[in-house]
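[step 3/7] inverse_fold.run input=structure_tokens len=105
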């Protein structure tokens, strides 16, 4: 699945196999890549987006490290909760609920 996707740099799959702090990101990204390769052809595009708090520098670093293993970054992205809520992409009620739950003042 990973090899057929063409998403990874040379040697990246060997790095990602097995136990590592990148394993969860890789497995979740593989789920998306498997959908894009499904024989039905139902999914023509997709992007795995990781949403994390701006203050979580460990997760931001993890996403940055994962990104270095990608030859094709079109199916992976990361964004902070704050950026997502400020983007105007979600309904106001959803933004308010998420701010209340994840960014209490």
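[step 3/7] decode complete -> sequence:
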């Amino acid at each position: 699945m990973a090899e057929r996707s063409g998403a990874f740099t040379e040697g990246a799959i060997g790095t990602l196999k097995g136990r590592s702090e990148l394993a969860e990101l890789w497995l979740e990204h593989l789920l998306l890549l498997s959908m894009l390769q499904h024989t039905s052809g139902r999914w023509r595009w997709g992007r795995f987006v990781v949403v994390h708090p701006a203050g979580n520098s460990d997760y931001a670093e993890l996403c940055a490290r994962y990104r270095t293993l990608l030859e094709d970054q079109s199916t992976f992205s990361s964004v902070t909760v704050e950026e997502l809520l400020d983007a105007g992409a979600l309904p106001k009620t959803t933004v308010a609920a998420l701010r209340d739950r994840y960014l209490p003042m």
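[step 4/7] annotate
Residues 1 and 34 are 6 Å apart (CA to CA).
The radius of gyration is 16 Å.
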